[in-house]
Amino acid sequence: MKFFIDTANLEQIKEAQALGVLDGVTTNPSLMAKEGITGQDNIINHYKAICELVDGDVSAEVISTDFDGMVKEGEALAALNPQIVVKLPMIKDGVKACKYFSSKGIKTNVTLVFSVGQALLAAKAGATYVSPFLGRLDDISTDGLNLIDEIRTVYDNFNFETQILAASVRNTMHVVNCAKLGSDVMTGPLSAIEGLLKHPLTDSGLAKFLADYQKGN
Ligand code: E4P
C-alpha cells in the first residue's frame, strides 16, 4: 500500500519523506488555507515546492466547478510538474473533466467520494485515483471502512485500474485497516503514519537491552 501524506505543511512533508516511507502528497483548498497559502501565485509556488520535496504524485485540486474551468485549471496545474495529479470533485462536470484528462494521459484524483456508485463512475471515467473519505463517513456514524471494502470488490470484479486512495484517514488503525482491506493507497496526517511505530513492548524491550548493555560496560 502506498503512503501519501495529507497536508500542505512543508515541514511535515519533509519529516515523512525523511522516514523513507512516503509515496506522495495530497492537498486540498482547506489544507492550503490552513498553512496560510492564498492567492493563485502563492498556491502555484507551493505546489512546486511540494514537488521538489517528494518523488511521488502530488494531488492539486481545482477550484472551478464547470467543465471548461476545470480543464483550464487542470491543464495549468499538470503543466507545473509531471508529478501533479489533477484533483477533481465528484460532480457531473468533474466526471466529464476526468474523462477528458484521462484520455490525454493526465493523472487524476476524483475526490469527495462517499458511495460505491460514485467510485464506479470515477473508474469508468478513467480516474487514476478515487478518494473515498472514510473519516468523514465515520463522523456521521457510517462505516467508512465498509466503503473501502465495497469499492475494492467492485473494482476487482471488473479489473478497473483506478487506484483506491483511502482519504480522510485520521488515525493509525485507519491505516492498518485500509491495508487489510486492500486499499492501494492511503492518505493521512503525519501522526497516523508515525503512530505505526508505537508499541509499549518495543519501548520497554529497548530500555531493557540498553540497561543490560550498560551493566556489562
Ligand atoms: C483527501 O484528499 C482530503 O484531502 C482529506 O483526506 C480530507 O480529510 P479530512 O476529512 O480529515 O479533512
TrEMBL record:
CDD domains: Transaldolase_FSA (cd00956)
An individual GO BP term: ketone catabolic process
Record pathway: Carbohydrate degradation; pentose phosphate pathway; D-glyceraldehyde 3-phosphate and beta-D-fructose 6-phosphate from D-ribose 5-phosphate and D-xylulose 5-phosphate (non-oxidative stage): step 2/3
Signal peptide: none
Enzyme Commission (EC) number: 2.2.1.2
Record carries keyword Cytoplasm: yes
Protein name: Probable transaldolase
